[in-house]
Specification:
This protein has 624 residues and is α/β, with parallel strands linked by helices. It has 25 helices and 27 strands. The chain has five domains: 130 residues, Rossmann fold (3-Layer(aba) Sandwich); 96 residues, PAS domain (Beta-Lactamase, 2-Layer Sandwich); 126 residues, 2-Layer Sandwich (Beta-Lactamase), CATH 3.30.450; 148 residues, 3-Layer(aba) Sandwich (Rossmann fold), CATH 3.40.50; 71 residues, Winged helix-like DNA-binding domain superfamily/Winged helix DNA-binding domain (Arc Repressor Mutant, subunit A), CATH 1.10.10.10.
């Protein structure tokens, strides 16, 4: 593929392009020959013919980058030649050569699929070269876009949600669910500005989301083809494609949900109908966590009778692991710091079982002299969570739970990066905060994540080591996120250990309250034993799901290599043999066994092989 997108006179000389000229006028042929021959960078290799038939034969024998086509040939007139070439080699860009009086014909040719048209006698060398280069670039973009559209359509047509892909509001594609939702045909939607599918007050907010890369969920009003509006829930994600930033947008029609919310506000009678008839569990809970009203679905989910549920509080049902977190959020809602609290939760059933749910809690508006109530809605996702847990067991090599802060002490961030990658593969949104260059992570992690450079220097992706700025970043993250802070050493260097410990306290709380997974990586050689113990008190250790039993002599070898690696040394086979006083054949056999079972990596440096522990074996020495 040729490198394009440069100034036409400054393209690299290493690029070359094969041009097929189909022209029966010798004067015009000679003119184009001279133009291309005099190109300073000698980029063009010209092949000529004066008939369409011989041109088609050449196309069957060679690969060309572009075709220059006369519309008046002895064996084809007007658009006949263009039609035949497009039906045979539609992927090759075509520039039409027309006479002075054929301007309309040139426009028609472009509409049919030609990339450009030039009027004979009305262009010079620079115009011809510019047209060739732009035509090749446009054709490549068309082909790439077509491939992207095909992939997108296959995936999106099986979705129950409306899906739209756009480039700065220019609509690229939409699935059938989206078209039906808004009432447009496919050809009509492609002509629209995507922002015009929202009510005017939301346009500016949507534009800001696009340029900021916001990926959270928000509600707005959609505008249908007939002008009517309807409530929608929108979530978008930025993707990089051909050096262009595009957005994939998921749209849900939440008309029914909004109607239910309005019903709740209008009257107690209508509220009761919705309350009792809803397919999810709903409860009214006072500010002391006492139940006021509970619908049947809620009770059945948890296995309580009407009488029994009045003898317990809502907080009694929350799993002990989440009680403090949820009480903290109830307080924030009561104080007006949050309008609603949405999370995944676990509740204790009457029979001792666990109910996994999606939970939404909000404070109902106070009316007259009535007390405030929390409106609690829970949706049973137990089956879904069991499936997720089975998937996690199959894919995750380590025991990681949401809502926790993990500390990994290692001189090189091998284990911490592997845990981060495993969670990305499970669908977590990933964030890397590091003082190391972004390229170091991009080269090792091929799944999309957001990178923030820990630095006092201000630029687009920089993040100050101050606690307030780090906390502000966490507030922008969505649920089911994993944050990899590599390395904690830098924060300690900039803030001192005590201030950094305060940051650790805060992010532990943020992990707990928001169900995040946060991974801290630190080089133990930079800290005292006391400092490491202080960090370990506030964090959890990463443990493997299965730890294989290793013979003591093998474990001693791994321990020696671990100690050497932490000093920045990769020992050789000879050094292992000397350390343990074993022969070369025995040393080689033991090391090969450890390499084959995934405990060691070999690195050839000159004629010698150096040894380094894998993430799998590091876990043997980082457990508490």
């Amino acid at each position: 593929m040729k490198q394009l997108g440069y100034n036409m006179e400054n393209l690299p000389g290493t690029d070359s392009f094969k041009v097929l000229l189909i022209e029966d006028n010798p004067i015009d042929r000679k003119l184009i020959q001279d133009f291309l021959k005099n190109d300073v960078l000698k980029r063009f290799h010209l092949t000529e013919t004066n008939k369409l038939e011989s041109g088609l034969q050449l196309l069957s024998q060679e690969n060309f980058d572009i075709i220059l086509l006369d519309l008046y040939l002895t064996d084809a007139r007007n658009l006949e030649a263009l039609d035949k070439i497009l039906s045979y080699k539609a992927e090759i860009p075509i520039i039409i050569l027309t006479g002075l009086s054929d301007d309309d014909l040139g426009v028609s040719a472009v509409r049919k699929g030609a990339q450009d048209y030039l009027i004979k006698g009305d262009f010079n060398r620079l115009v011809l070269i510019r047209s060739i280069m732009y035509s090749i670039e446009r054709k490549e973009a068309e082909i790439a876009l077509k491939e992207s559209e095909d992939r997108f359509r296959r995936l999106s047509e099986v979705s129950f949600e409306g899906i739209l892909i756009h480039d700065k509001s220019m609509i690229i594609d939409a699935n059938q669910t989206f078209l039906k939702m808004f009432g447009y045909s496919y050809s009509e939607i492609r002509e629209l500005d995507g922002f015009n599918l929202m009510q005017p007050p939301m346009k500016e907010k949507a534009e800001n989301h696009v340029y900021s890369g916001y990926e959270g969920v928000y509600d707005t009003l959609g505008v249908k083809k007939d002008g009517t509006t309807f409530p929608i829930e929108v979530q978008a994600k930025s993707i990089a494609y051909k050096n262009r930033k595009m957005r994939v947008v998921s749209v849900r029609d939440i008309t029914e949900r909004k109607k239910a919310e309005m019903v709740l506000k209008r009257s107690e009678e209508r509220f009761k109908k919705v309350f009792e008839g809803a397919p999810i569990g709903i409860a009214l809970v006072d500010l002391n966590c006492q139940f006021d009203q509970v619908n049947e679905v809620f009770r059945l989910m948890l296995g309580y009778s009407e009488e029994e549920i009045t003898n317990i509080t809502f907080c009694d049902l929350i799993h002990p692991e989440y009680v403090n977190r949820d009480i903290a959020y109830l307080e924030k809602i009561k104080k007006g710091e949050y309008a609603a609290y949405k999370t995944e939760n676990r509740y204790l059933k009457r029979n001792g079982g666990i109910l996994y749910s999606k939970t939404s809690i909000t404070l109902l508006p106070q009316k007259y002299n009535q007390p405030n109530y929390y409106l609690v809605m829970i949706e049973d996702i137990t089956i879904q969570k069991k499936i997720e847990e089975e998937t996690r067991k199959k894919l995750m090599r380590y025991k990681i739970e949401d809502g926790n802060l993990y500390l990994i002490t290692e001189s090189v961030s091998n284990l911490s990066r592997q845990v981060f990658i495993d969670l990305l593969e499970l669908g977590y949104s990933g964030y890397v905060i590091s003082s190391f260059p972004e390229a170091e992570f991009k080269n090792q992690i091929d799944i999309e994540f957001k990178y923030f450079w820990l630095s006092e220097t201000r630029n687009r992706n920089s993040l100050s080591p101050e606690i307030k700025e780090i906390e502000s970043l966490f507030k922008t993250m969505t649920s089911k996120s994993v944050v990899f802070i590599d390395r904690l050493d830098y924060l300690i260097l900039k803030n001192g250990f005590n201030e950094t410990l305060k940051i650790v306290f805060k992010i532990r709380e943020l992990a707990y309250l928001n169900n995040f997974v946060i991974i801290l990586s630190v080089d133990p050689s930079t800290l005292s034993k006391y400092q490491i113990r202080m960090l370990e008190k506030e964090t959890k250790v990463v443990e493997p799901r299965v730890i294989a039993r290793i013979p003591d002599e093998m474990l001693n070898i791994l321990k020696f290599i671990y100690q050497q690696n932490n000093l920045g040394i990769k020992p050789s086979y000879t050094e292992i043999g000397v350390e343990f006083e074993i022969s070369k054949p025995t040393t080689r056999k033991k090391i090969k066994n450890l390499v084959s079972t995934g405990y060691l990596n070999e690195h050839r440096i000159g004629a010698r092989k150096k040894l380094e522990l894998t993430a799998k074996s590091i876990l043997l020495f980082t457990k508490k």
